[in-house]
Design brief:
Layout lengths: L7 H10 L1 E4 L5 H17 L20 H4 L5 E5 L18 E6 L1 H4 L1 H7 L2 H9 L6 E8 L9 E4 L13 E6 L10 E3 L10 E5 L5 E5 L11 E3 L6 E5 L4 E3 L10 E7 L24
Antiparallel strand pairs: 1-11, 2-3, 3-4, 4-13, 5-12, 6-11, 6-13, 7-10, 7-12, 8-9
The structure holds 2-oxoglutaric acid.
The site of 2-oxoglutaric acid (AKG) has 9 residues, from β12 and β13.
Length: about 280
Amino acid sequence: MSAALLTTTQQEDYQKNGYLIIRDFIAPEICEHLMARAHQLIENFNVADVKTVFSTQDQRHAKQLYFLDSGDDIRFFFEAGALSQDGELVVEKHKSINKIGHALHDLDPVFNTFSRTHKMAMLAHDLGLRNPLLLQSMYICKQPRIGGEVTCHQDGTYLHTKNKSVVGLWIALEDATQENGCLWAIPGGHTTPLKSRFTRNMQDETTNTVLDDSDWNLANMVPLEVPRGSVIVLHTQLPHMSKENTSAKSRHAYTLHMMDGHDEFSNDNWMRRPANKPFTGFI
Ligand SMILES: O=C(O)CCC(=O)C(=O)O
């Protein structure tokens, strides 16, 4: 496969900034199709099953096996503001889910097909990934009024590989603006070494090890406002975040993380795959 999707300028921009925005990467109809599928998945999800909140502020999800064992499953995580102190839903079901993860790309036919299109494979190729492996997928809702903040982080903290080859694709299914909680990133911040690592041991205990306790220079963050259908490519060491969504609009996005198949996925990552369900590529 020859470089065909990205121009040299786009490749240079990615190297320089640690992120790249490609507008009109997918058609509005595809955005609708993915949103309709996520709606259906939420419809079929039994709220009474498990109520796990995803919060990057107190990391309460990180101690629960429902989260830790979601690497080869499709699981649902709530916005903190969706549940009362007694664990009862205080908003309607479709407005309560923070995200769905982490194996939509493997287990759901719609997301599987979408994640493995030729265009995705071309993008991975143009980003320099050899024999790319798909690691995780997330459908992120950033719900109106209660969409939680995602604090500044590098994806390599959570998806660590020996040669730092992880690349995230963040695809806007709705317009993402400062109003509804778009991504923010520090241009060029991907040259900053990893500031922390989030690991899991054989007893399923998780640890956040700080490697550099200096503060992020949040003043250097720029908003990455994008129209629906855009993809934002994220380098594994790029510091990025999103603020709360206090607006009346949701901000749905689909994310897919992949790595170079010649790299080594660290076995103390929180996410694990059983031996009979290894990561696979685009085919
Ligand atoms: O979609 C967002 O608001 C942030 C997502 C993100 O940074 C992540 O999941 O790593």
